[in-house]
Amino acid sequence: MPAMHSVPAPQHVAVIGAGMVGLATAWFLQERGVQVTVLDRTGVAAGASWGNAGWLTPGITTPLPEPAVLRYGLRAVLSPSSPVYVPPRADARLLRFLAGFARHSTPSKWRTAMQAYIPMNRRAFEAFDALEAGGVASMTNEAKSFIAAYRTEAERSVLLDELGHIHSAGQEIEFDVLTGAEAREVEPSLSDDIGAAIRLHGQRFINPGHYMHALADSVRARGGSLVTGADVVNVRDEGAGVRVVTSAGADERYDALVLATGTWLGELARRFGVRTVVQAGRGYSFSVAIEHVPAGPVYFPAQRVACTPLGDRLRVAGMMEFRSAEAPLDRRRILAIAEAARPLLRGADLDARTDEWVGARPCTPDGLPLIGRTGSPRVFAAGGHGMWGITLGPLTGRLLAEQITSGHQPAEIRPFDPLR
After folding, report:
1. Which of 181, 225, 292, 301 is packed most tightly, with the most Cβ within 10 A?
2. Do 12 and 255 touch, CB atoms closer than 8 A?
């Protein structure tokens, strides 16, 4: 049985990080009667939560380390135009992460990690529905169509195999196999180069920036404090509480603390026994006008390019770049996404891009997030979701709030123990 509280249930909790995971944790703590203060060094959704594709896709939420990743080879990952990019001068920490990532990119380790995701994936939408029912003024959108499109049937076989593995692992996902012509009938924005496709059912999407701000507004409206420009430089467990010090000189004590700092999770979590490397897996995006705005997300898996309709424009996102989170935007990566998408989309003005963005997804070597109590009974971690922080962020917050207030570790988050 999981241990009961060794400390009293907290009355006032600080959450460091105002992305999806941090804000959702704060909101669900409020549901349980806890006062919350959210601290962020920049602002709401300033990290990976703003410019991502906004997909809510529990049907295809799987561990990032997978056998297919190992097929890229050294020459491919060193190319700035590759869907997966590692800079030639990798530091020791990145090399440690990559070695662990490679060790976990085997079929047996993928199956084990997939088993950990399935209970979370089954409940992911339930948490979004709770937020909406509780007054968050931004809704999720049902994906009327969700098309994964390919040039050839041979390319499509990779995702068909993965869907087979997902189904074999016990996760349900409904899909149709389409020809290129059938895919264009569903989604006219696809070009004639598309010769094969898969249509996924039962998925959703959001405008992540709008959603984050609506969630932050709800936290504030329910009495929570949201402090921006708060760069936390020190955290100490003082026995009777947790001391939080910011670079601006603020020095406050709370009953408990949640570290939801995304790619920077390890910086503060290490002192509380968390040894897992959290590495920036950077993604890029931009927005373009398109003649026919798709009815739902469009995915080009072979190019690792994800497209999402946001209002009257199309957000085009993609790539996985393992380098420092603070590195400047690399224009070669933006151009690589545009050139990869150009022959596959019809009527998209890929040369008139706006909202060019790079954000750092927090990735772990085993592909599993870090959710739960650290070595301190008052300090909790919530991060390392890789590409799935938007899909699983609300449920993470709900389950972590349960653990923080009750002392019980929900079964769904046991595989994600930060001390593993």
Report:
1. 301
2. yes
